[in-house]
């Protein structure tokens, strides 16, 4: 019996050696929010398919459970644990200190530790770009912004977006609303719809959301009232073709995939990885679902805007820097 | 203020209040019968999910609403059995129900739609929206009429109240108070489940995880603060909805004075609390509530 057990253990450890184990902790919006978490999940799924890793994902239903989820993965000797969302910063910080052998990655949060890679995005750049796009398409000169939870990260979207609008139409009116001040704000499509309807009643004809799963409410309202919406994080053009003007892509999928790949290849490094317009980590989405909404001249104009941001000719206000 | 904005405000008020109105009406009956009900959130979630799933599969709103009510009522039977058969504490079981709803929905949706809680989008064509609006209006009006009739006019409603106030009186006339409480909780889940259906099929066009976002607790607070009075509870809910609508308007206005967003977000709660203080009531909690 003991021999058998030994063989079994060997077999198991062999198996574990062969297969990289990746734990993915998703935020409240959940894997199907069609936005931020969906992007992260896609990236991990791609790694599972292409790199032959073993993927396990969990969704946080409340913020207090985050640390336990991370700890669980670390205790089970997962090679890499990825936390999705700023809310997981504390959990990653604590768990990473307790399990120095385990590698961690966090999206949207900065944790400095020897075993943590922080994946940060330059949201303001992309928001500026879609802001310019919104101003180009707005006939009324009124543009709306719906934020999820009122946190500095989303303010960063807002400020960039506002600057982008003003760059095209300095006289534009910008309506700004936040769904809430707690995590529930990511999951409240009914309220997002109400906010969108209110903005539309004040003549807004292009509305951008940075509100995770709540964004569905904006798309409903926009389709109902025949105005344009702009998606966020994932490419959301397909959700309501013809209504979704474009999406501000925040390629969390790429960041997650690259991180898993680096662990697989033994090239994992701790520290901050930034993704912006320059490297394509941030972009605007143009595909078959929204192609018909854009003329070649407009596409060209946006390409110019993008170029000047990358070249540093336009300085996009960064909420992190202006408010700190 | 132009009439257009005013009308928009009224409509927004009604929309923001709808699910809470249903949950508060349901919670009222449970609380009145002497069963503290903190599982409204669970019934809302189950109702919302069931309606979105059934609505997607069958394309029928009526079936969606009925299924939502039934699913919530079935779930309430777990609550009932634990409370009445095993004499468990209703607060503890209620908390458990909320967690159960959060946990069970992803499991069902995983098998049905390969998702962790969300459902595919419903039809949002103009015809479908119109139908949905009619459905919601009819349901809401009949729900309020029915609740009012049960609470104020019917014998059965009186017995539910007695179950919570003085259950010996019921026993003495040969009615089992436990039975009335059981029925009251089931009625509560039926009504609240429909509130969930409205949330996912009318106010949104699909279910997304935890979409009730605390509305069940606001409903319970409304019932309690209104002194366990149905009509006052409705007024409180509508007032809260109004304050929410105003809050949304305020945020969208580019005011000359910058008010911190956190403060604006707090206003509905603050305004409701102040209104409740003014609306002070003498009526006390059901005597046998536990």
Feature tags:
heterodimer, A: 324 residues, alpha/beta, Rossmann fold, 6-stranded parallel sheet, 12 strands, B: 290 residues, mainly alpha, 11 helices, globular
Summary?
The complex is a heterodimer of chains A (324) and B (290). Chain A is of the alpha/beta class and 324 residues long.
Total beta strands of chain A: 12
Oligomer: heterodimer
Give the number of helices of chain A: 11
> What is the CA-atom radius of gyration of chain B, in angstroms?
19 Å
The structural domain count of chain B equals 1
| Average pLDDT figure of chain A | 90
| Rg from alpha-carbon coordinates of chain A | 21 Å
Number of helices of chain B: 11
Strand content of chain B is under 5%
CATH architecture of the largest domain in chain A: 3-Layer(aba) Sandwich
CATH-defined superfamily of the largest domain in chain A: Response regulator
Main structural class of chain A: alpha/beta
What features would you describe in this structure?
- The complex is a heterodimer of chains A (324) and B (290).
- Chain A contains eleven helices and twelve strands.
- With 324 residues, chain A is α/β, with parallel strands linked by helices.
- In chain A, β6, α6 (152-168) and β7 form a beta-alpha-beta unit.
- In chain A, strands 2-1-3-4-5-11 form a six-stranded parallel beta sheet, sandwiched between helices.
- Chain A has two domains: 2-121 and 252-275, Rossmann fold (3-Layer(aba) Sandwich); 123-249 and 294-323, Rossmann fold (3-Layer(aba) Sandwich), CATH 3.40.50.2300.
- Chain A has helices spanning 2-18, 36-51, 66-75, 89-98, 123-137, 152-168, 189-201, 215-225, 252-264, 296-310, 319-323, and strands at 21-26, 54-59, 80-84, 103-107, 116-121, 142-149, 173-180, 206-210, 228-233, 244-250, 271-275, 282-284.
- The relative contact order of chain A is 0.15.
- In chain A, α5 (123-137) packs across α6.
- Chain B is mainly alpha-helical.
- Chain B contains eleven helices and no strands.
- Chain B has helices at 3-32, 40-58, 61-85, 90-113, 126-153, 155-165, 167-172, 177-203, 215-225, 230-252, 261-278.
- In chain B, α2 (40-58) packs across α9, α3 packs antiparallel against α4 and α5 runs antiparallel to α8 (177-203).
- At the A-B interface, β7, α7 and α8 of A face α1, α10 and α11 of B.
């Amino acid at each position: 019996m003991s021999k058998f057990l030994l063989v079994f253990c060997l077999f198991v450890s062999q198996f574990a050696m062969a297969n990289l184990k990746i734990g993915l902790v998703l935020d409240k919006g959940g894997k199907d929010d069609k936005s931020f978490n969906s992007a992260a999940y896609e990236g991990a799924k791609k790694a599972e398919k292409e790199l032959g890793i073993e993927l396990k994902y969990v969704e946080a239903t409340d913020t207090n459970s985050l640390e336990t989820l991370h700890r669980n993965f670390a205790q089970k000797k997962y090679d890499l644990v990825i936390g999705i969302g700023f809310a997981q910063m504390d959990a990653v910080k604590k768990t990473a200190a307790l399990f120095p052998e385990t590698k961690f990655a966090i999206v949207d949060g900065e944790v400095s530790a020897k075993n943590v890679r922080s994946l940060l995005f330059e949201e303001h750049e992309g928001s500026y770009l879609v802001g310019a796009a919104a101003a180009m398409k707005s006939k009324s000169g009124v543009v709306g912004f719906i934020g999820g939870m009122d946190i500095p990260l989303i303010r960063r979207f807002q400020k960039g977006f506002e600057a982008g609008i003003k760059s095209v139409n300095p006289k534009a009116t910008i309506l700004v609303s936040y769904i809430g001040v707690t995590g529930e704000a990511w999951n409240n499509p009914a309220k997002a719809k109400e906010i969108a309807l209110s903005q539309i009643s004040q003549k807004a004809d292009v509305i951008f959301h940075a509100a995770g799963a709540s964004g569905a409410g904006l798309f409903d309202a926009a389709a109902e009232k025949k105005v344009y919406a702009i998606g966020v994080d994932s490419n959301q053009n397909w959700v309501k073709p013809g209504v979704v003007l474009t999406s501000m892509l925040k390629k969390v999928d790429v960041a997650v995939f690259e991180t898993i790949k680096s662990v697989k290849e033994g090239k994992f490094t701790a520290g901050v990885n930034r993704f912006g317009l320059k490297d394509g980590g941030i972009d605007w989405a143009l595909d078959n679902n929204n192609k018909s909404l854009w003329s070649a001249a407009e596409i060209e104009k946006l390409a110019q805007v993008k170029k000047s941001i990358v070249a540093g000719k336009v300085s996009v206000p960064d909420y992190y820097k202006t408010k700190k | 203020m132009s009439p257009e904005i005013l009308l928009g405000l009224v409509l927004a008020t009604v929309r923001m209040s709808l699910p809470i109105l249903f949950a508060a009406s349901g919670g009222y009956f449970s609380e009145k019968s002497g069963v503290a009900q903190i599982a409204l959130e669970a019934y809302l979630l189950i109702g919302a999910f069931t309606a979105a799933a059934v609505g997607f599969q069958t394309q029928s709103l009526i079936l969606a609403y009925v299924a939502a009510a039934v699913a919530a009522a079935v779930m309430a039977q777990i609550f009932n059995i634990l409370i009445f058969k095993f004499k468990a504490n209703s607060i503890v079981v209620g908390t458990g129900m909320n967690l159960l709803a959060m946990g069970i929905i992803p499991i069902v949706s995983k098998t049905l739609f390969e998702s962790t809680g969300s459902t595919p989008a419903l039809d949002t064509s103009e015809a479908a929206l119109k139908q949905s609006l009619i459905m919601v209006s009819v349901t809401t009006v009949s729900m309020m009429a029915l609740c009012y009739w049960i609470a104020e006019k019917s014998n059965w409603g009186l017995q539910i109240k007695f179950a919570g106030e003085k259950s010996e009186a019921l026993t003495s006339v040969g009615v089992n108070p436990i039975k009335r409480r059981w029925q009251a909780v089931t009625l509560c889940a039926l009504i609240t489940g429909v509130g969930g259906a409205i949330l996912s099929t009318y106010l949104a066009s699909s279910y997304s995880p935890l979409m009730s976002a605390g509305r069940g607790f606001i409903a319970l607070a409304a019932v309690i603060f209104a002194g366990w009075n149905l009509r006052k509870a409705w007024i409180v809910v509508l007032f809260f909805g109004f304050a929410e609508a105003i809050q949304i308007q305020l945020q969208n206005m580019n005011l000359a004075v910058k008010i911190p967003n956190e403060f604006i977000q707090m206003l509905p709660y603050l305004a409701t609390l102040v209104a409740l203080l003014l609306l002070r009531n003498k009526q006390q909690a059901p005597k046998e509530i536990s």
